[in-house]
Amino acid sequence: MTLPAPTVVPPVAGATPLPGGAAGIACSYSAATASPPVVVIIALASGLPSGYLSTEEQKEVASLQAANINLNFTPLSGLGDEAATYQYTANGLTVEGVLAGQGGNFAGVFTEGTSASLSQIESLVKQLL
């Protein structure tokens, strides 16, 4: 798959800012004209407190449930101190990803419309972490 150059993803309105002392970046690779549209977002952060990942997971579940979208995180072992996969369908497109944290560092890859498997996404997150 070939995607255009990344663009920096600005914070979404209402998004929780990173805690003080933490820093991060997210880049979005988008092929909106593909059929189906393809989006890959890679996010990295450092300086996060322990438990941050699980707290944010809970917030995301609540947010999507309010929009009638069922989201469940599945714990993933062998990747960092804490990791999870997720998958849900919205507007006919499958959204999936892998999130991982280790020692205050975070890496996440979020995909929509790709043929990448969760194990392939996990492998990329392992390299980024």
Could you describe the 3D structure shown?
- By secondary structure, the chain is an alpha+beta fold.
- The protein has one domain (23-37, 51-128).
- It is 20% helix and 39% strand.
- The chain has two helices and seven strands; from the N terminus they run E-E-E-H-E-E-E-E-H.
- The chain has helices at 52-66, 118-128, and strands at residues 7-8, 23-31, 38-46, 73-75, 82-90, 93-102, 105-112.
- The protein has a seven-stranded antiparallel β-sheet.
- A hairpin with a 6-residue loop joins strand 4 (73-75) and strand 5.
- It is globular and about 40 Å long.
- The mean pLDDT is 84.
Radius of gyration: 14 Å
Biggest sheet: strands side by side, in what order? 1-2-3-7-6-5-4
Question: Please, what is the oligomeric state?
Answer: single chain
Q: Mind describing the biggest β-sheet?
A: 7 strands, antiparallel
State the helicity in percent bands. Answer: 10-25%
Residue runs with pLDDT of under 50 for 5 or more positions: none
Run of helices and strands: EEEHEEEEH
Q: How many β strands by DSSP?
A: 7
**Total domains, how many?**
1
Task: Give the termini distance in whole angstroms.
Answer: 23 Å
Number of helices: 2
The shape, in one word, is globular
Quick check: average pLDDT?
84
What fraction of residues sit in β-strands?
A: 35-45%
Decide which structural class fits the backbone.
alpha+beta
